[in-house]
Amino acid sequence: MQIPIEYYLILSAIMFSTGVVGVLIRRNAIVVFMSIELMLNSANLTLVTFSSYLGNSIGQIFVFFVMAVAAAEAAVGLAIIIALFRNKLTVNIDEINIFKW
Amino acid sequence: MNLVVVLFAIFALVCVSSSILMVTRRNPVISALFLVVNFASLAGLYLTLNAQFIAVAQVIVYAGAIMVFFLFVIMLINPAKEKKFLEYKPQLKIFALVIAFLVFVQIAYIIFVAHPSNDVTRDVAQSVKAGTVEQIGRELFTNYVLPVEAVGYLLLSAAIGALVLAKKKFQ
Amino acid sequence: MINLIYLTILFPLIGFIINGVFGSKIKNEKVIGVIGSGAIGLSFLIVVFAFFETLSLPVKERTHIVELFTWLKVGGLDVSIAYQVDQLSLVMALIVTGVGFVIHVYSIGYMHGDKAFWRFFAYLNLFIFTMMNLILADNFVLMFLGWEGVGLCSYLLIGFWYDKDFEKSTTSAAGLKAFIVNRIGDVGFLLGMFLIYLVFNSLNFAEVFSRATTFHISEHIFTLIAIFLFIGATGKSAQIPLYVWLPDAMAGPTPVSALIHAATMVTAGVYMVARTSIIFASAPTAMMVVAVIGVFTAFFAATIGMVQNDIKKVLAYSTISQLGYMFLAMGAGAFSAGIFHVMTHAFFKALLFLGAGSVIHSMHEQQDIRHYGGLKKYMPVTYGTFLVAAIAISGVPPLSGFFSKDEILWYSYTNIGFVFWLIGVITAVMTAFYMFRLQFLTFHGKSRFDEKKTHPHESPRVMTIPLIILAVLAAIGGFIGIPELFSGEHGNLFHSWLEPIFKSAELKLSYFGSHSHFEEYLFMIISIVGAVAGILVAGYIYLRKPQVADRLSARFKSIYRLLLNKYYVDEAYDATVVNPLVNTSKSFLWKIFDSKIIDGFINAVASWIGNLSSLIRKIQTGVVQSYALVMMIGILLALFWIIMSL
Asked: How many of the other CB atoms lie within 10 Å of CB of C45?
């Protein structure tokens, strides 16, 4: 029996929604960041699924690039969090509202 | 019920439960560890999809490098535990939950209405071939050599940027 | 050299930029003066070469268009920065750069010690730059650019000594007056241009003029275009009713009066009419208007000039009067005679102004001729050159003024009528009278100034040499335009040079009528006798019997007052136009319309936006998560849209 493609897609949708919830309700910036990684991975899963079902490696190559970009993003984002923590002594994003003028 | 289906069921269960636990745990270290579990189960799912290279890369890059980085930062900063779910601005959080749920419903609706399994049937031999290291390496270093270079520079500049940002004082 | 004609425009621009940007740093007057004059000198040389090159070409190939680049291309309108080198523009360019160069050199001496020496030369160069654009333009738009540019330079130079008083107000007010009066004329020019574009669908000279001869267009439209263009010309060339700015323009330094307000800029209107001669020739009514305005301006300005006491004012009215002659020539269809007068007038009037400047310079800025007298022995060169110019303008043969003026008078008789000739001759007599009144009161008789306080002296050589050059030109300049009557088979050289330009216009006018040589001789002799009589009367009154002048002015007190106050035209303009405008502006436009309605509206909008913003800004919490929430709602809606389109 083959696994229908919808299973993977729904799994990916669940992961994505969970990530959204994490981004929206968590206060800790690092956890928010991890939730974003979760969402990225759910997208990766979709890409790999389609790549596999279509028998085409382009989706997997795309995932490779997504990973590289995610690594870069994590490095810079965490550096920003460290810099922010040094200034504000907190990583709670509802206490950081320097966007507001 | 063959092995692939069983494996898919196990990994999918682990994946969903670990992601939900990651979002709901109040201690960030626990959250991070659940995320590692989630990534590991994702690697397993990739294997069920015959994507060997990506599965390995997932373990090395995500579960290995990136998550270690996260854990380092968490321990460096050592943030306090978060408040309980309904302790702080409960209406906003419930509203956010509703929004996220609606997004999920919509995506699911789209998936079922579109019903891609009608159009896409899996050819196992093809998908095995697509996921090999050889195939992906060939593609990366022929058709996608320029993006690979660009990503290299991106990582370099990200490393420099992280260094500059996290330095104690700007001279 | 013809293809390098743009250099004549470039050099003054470079001079302007160097003097204008670095002038205040250079400080050395000699360097600034050499840069300023040198730029014009180089342009003059190029024009001279271009002239001789054109002269060597066969008549049919003498028109050249030098196109540099496309300036505007909007819809059907295609305007290039292109310069037209032909017989007419070359004559004008020679006058402007030649006389301009001489005046630049003179200015080095005249402006010596001025605190803004560099600024003066920068403005002068800018003037030559814009004037050359006006002259060499091959389309109306570029011409208008030059037209406005010379107006701007005129304004800047009239108000050059902006901190000085002039008559009842300041020099900057005089500059402003010139600028605003010119604007009225410019509206006419613009309307004419629009109409030309509407009718001929082009603003390029060559296209417009060829279409003007081939298209079948009603005469009324030609009349309308011509009248609009002529309104522009009256503004720039100081004709009735827009002449009032020119006397006030004397507030500027004297070289400026010589260059801009006598020799070059004020003749731009004449040049424009000559350039568009075909349009004017197609509109006989407009031609008549031009002639009438011209002859009346000549007459009235001459009457005012007879009683003025300011040396520059006399010359200013004389300029207006002479410009009137030029327009009379244009109106009479004697285009080349008018251009000829532009040339000779440039020589002798520039000379008169420079001579006046020399006198003013040595008399410590005293301009009232009643306080001059007997300057002959102090400044012989100025005296001699001024005399040459006075004779030339009076129309005594064989000096240049005689040939050009007499030609205009002759054509006004043959082409439009005896009355024009008569008024012209009377004006000529008056011209001779007031010029020699000026000459005698300034240089002859007893000194009427305190010789202990004032020590008149001859001007330095940098000023006298330009005077001598111009005197030579004023004396012999007329010989290139000797009428056919004398030169016989050679014909009139100047006419045959310009003939191709005006051929189509003259063809359209086609004045026939046979006039015998006897008539021509007779009329010439009458005008010579008139001029000599004017000189003699002036001599009698102001040298022999100075009391006669006072008696006359006492006897005809009302007329004298009328003339002295310039027919109260300024006052009439003030009462009818300026004051009502100022009053409505002050009481209604400023206090009610501007401060209440416009400002009120602006303030209302501003406060409304302010209130709204202080409400909206609350949305901007600055917390990232709320932005993410909004983003998710956006995704929700986007997905919804996808679902709806499934």
From this structure: 16
User: Nearest C-alpha of chain A: how many angstroms from B69?
Assistant: 8
Q: Which of A32, A33, C629, A93 is nearest to B93 (CA)?
A: C629
Q: Where are the domains of chain A?
A: 5-88
Output the pLDDT for position C458. Answer: 85
Task: Summarize pLDDT for C310-346 with one digit per residue, the tens.
Answer: 899 999 999 999 999 999 999 998 898 999 999 999 9
Of C289, C126, C314, which Cα lies nearest the Cα of C222? C289
Task: Quote the ipTM score.
Answer: 0.90
- pLDDT tens digit sequence for C171-191: 888 888 899 899 999 999 999
Å between A96 CA and nearest CA of chain C: 7
**CATH assignment of A5-88, among 3.30.450.40, 3.40.50.2300, 3.90.78.10, 1.10.287.3510:** 1.10.287.3510
Task: Establish, for the pair of chains A and B, how many residue pairs have beta carbons separated by less than 8 Å.
Answer: 235
Three-state SS for C85? strand
The residue to which tokens 């009324």 are assigned: C220
Determine contact, residues A34/B35, Cβ cutoff 8 Å: yes
CB atoms C622 and A93 under 8 Å: no
How far is A15 from A8, CA to CA, in rounded Å?
A: 11
Distance CA C551, CA C557 (A): 9
CATH of region B1-82: 1.20.120.1200
Contact C479, C398 (CB under 8 A): yes
Ordered by start, the domain boundaries in chain C are: 1-138, 139-564, 570-645
User: pTM higher than 0.95, yes or no?
Assistant: no
CA C25, C357, C477, C134: dihedral to nearest 10 degrees? 50
Report residue C513's pLDDT band, with 50, 70 and 90 as the boundaries: low
Torsion angles phi and psi, residue B32, rounded to 5:
-65, -40
- Read off the pLDDT of residues C33-51 as tens digits, 9 standing for 90 and up: 999 999 999 999 999 999 9
Label residue B77 by pLDDT band (50, 70, 90).
confident
- C-alpha C636/C-alpha B106 separation (Å) is 8
DSSP string, C469-493: HHHHHHHHGGGGG--HHHHGGG--H
Residue of B nearest to C631 (CA): B99
Q: Which residue do the tokens 């320097």 mark?
A: A98
Contact yes or no for C341/C450 (Cβ under 8 A): no
Interface of B with C in 88-107 (CB under 8 A): 92, 95-96, 99-100, 102-103, 106-107
3-state secondary structure chain B: CCHHHHHHHHHHHHHHHHHHHHHHCCCHHHHHHHHHHHHHHHHHHHHHCCCHHHHHHHHHHHHHHHHHHHHHHHHHHCCCCCCCCCCCCHHHHHHHHHHHHHHHHHHHHHHHHHCHHHCCCCCHHHHHHHHCHHHHHHHHHHCCHHHHHHHHHHHHHHHHHHHHHHCCCCC
Put residue A89 in one of left, alpha, beta given phi > 0 → left and psi -120 to 50 → alpha: left
For chain B, which residues make up each domain, given as ranges?
1-82
Identify all chain A residues contacting C632, using CB atoms and an 8 Å cutoff: 20, 24
> CA of C636: which chain B residue's CA is closest?
B103
Q: Determine whether the interchain pair C632/B99 forms a contact, defined as Cβ–Cβ distance below 8 Å.
A: yes
How wide is the angle at C-alpha C555 spanned by C-alphas C553 and C561, nearest 5°?
Answer: 45
The band of C270, judged by pLDDT with boundaries at 50, 70 and 90, is very high
Sign of CA dihedral C416, C417, C421, C427: negative
pLDDT in tens, A18-35: 999 999 888 888 899 999
Give percent of chain C above pLDDT 90: 39
Q: Which residues in C lie closer than 8 A to residue B113 (C-beta atoms)?
A: 643, 646
* H or E segment to which residue C170 belongs: strand C169-170
Sequence-distant (6+) residues with CB within 8 A of C524 are: C406, C410, C485
